[in-house]
Amino acid sequence: MDNINISQAVIQRLPRYYRYLGELNDEGVSRISSRELSELMHVTASQIRADLNHFGGFGQVGYGYNVRNLYDEIGKILGLDENHKLVVIGAGHLGQALSNYVNFERRGFHIMGIFDIDPDLVGKKIRDVYVSPMNELESFIRNNDVDIAVLTIPKTSAVEVAKTLVNCGIKAIWNFAHVDLPVPYDVIVENVHLSESLMRLSYNIKR
Length: 207
Description:
CATH topology of the largest domain: Rossmann fold
Strand content: 15-25%
Shape: elongated
CATH class of the largest domain: Alpha Beta
Order of helices and strands: HEHHEHEHHEEEHEHEEH
Number of strands: 9
Number of helices: 9
Number of domains: 2
Distance between the termini: 40 Å
Structural class: alpha/beta
CATH architecture of the largest domain: 3-Layer(aba) Sandwich
């Protein structure tokens, strides 16, 4: 599987499969066919089979999919069987909301530190983590083996902060700043542009 180029479209659908399978597992459903899953998710059964076949298929003819096993396997594919250490840069409203989101820990994402330049925010406790000043960021990342950074800061400072993060060894950035980050090819950036989502919604309403 590691040597196969999986399309981003397939990868983007995996978390949705994972969510639906988790709900089915919680409801006590032990097995499900691709047709039944397609009816729940409004995705064709052939699309589901094609997506899962990239990773080995997992289904059995005449039986379908074992819900718990498929849920666990997709979790492994997504890397959710590993623990990830995060820092949040920016302790404003969005940074605080993300830091308070308990499902991160359930998925193996642990917020180790929160940082901000605002002296009124430094020292504030968000859940069990105190907001630290930005001048402590580099040493904190290096001393705590942090691998993911979350950027919830204005775009005017995001590029410079991203450079610092890369220099500290960060390999993945979850970027909520409205700016594209110029980072090396081996640093993964997941951009979340909230206004773009609203614009797509506006377009679809107009149609």
